[in-house]
Amino acid sequence: MYQYSLQWFRTLFVQAIRLAAAADDIAARIESLNGFFTYYVYTNICRSLFERHKLLFSFLLTVRILQGYDEIDALEWMVTHFYKLFQPF
């Protein structure tokens, strides 16, 4: 099982703030931080994953991002996911 510490995550967060593109506009800065931090976390986590787990992680991260933009209904996702999970073979 993969585990990442809060300290590791916090260090990535601080580095992402320093490395993300600067912007004068707050909205543009937030957009830059969100995009860069997502990419930064993704690359750092993928570095430690087994090859067979990378695609699943990418898919789940994409689903969460789309849920954040309300492009995937969370309830529909949960019902569909659990329905398929518990179907008999």
What does this structure look like?
This protein has about 90 residues and is mainly α. It has one domain (about 5-85). The protein contains four helices and no strands. α1 (about 5-20) packs across α2. The two termini are about 25 Å apart. The mean pLDDT is about 90.
Secondary structure layout plus pairing:
Layout: H1 6-19, H2 26-46, H3 51-68, H4 74-85
Helix pairs in contact: 1-2
From the structure above, extract its key features:
89 residues; mainly alpha; 0% strand; flat
Mean pLDDT: 89
Number of domains: 1
- Unreliable stretches, pLDDT < 50, 5 or more residues? none
Quick one: biggest sheet? Answer: none
Shape field: flat
- Quote the distance from N terminus to C terminus: 26 Å
Total strands? 0
Please give a quick description of this structure.
This protein is mostly helical.
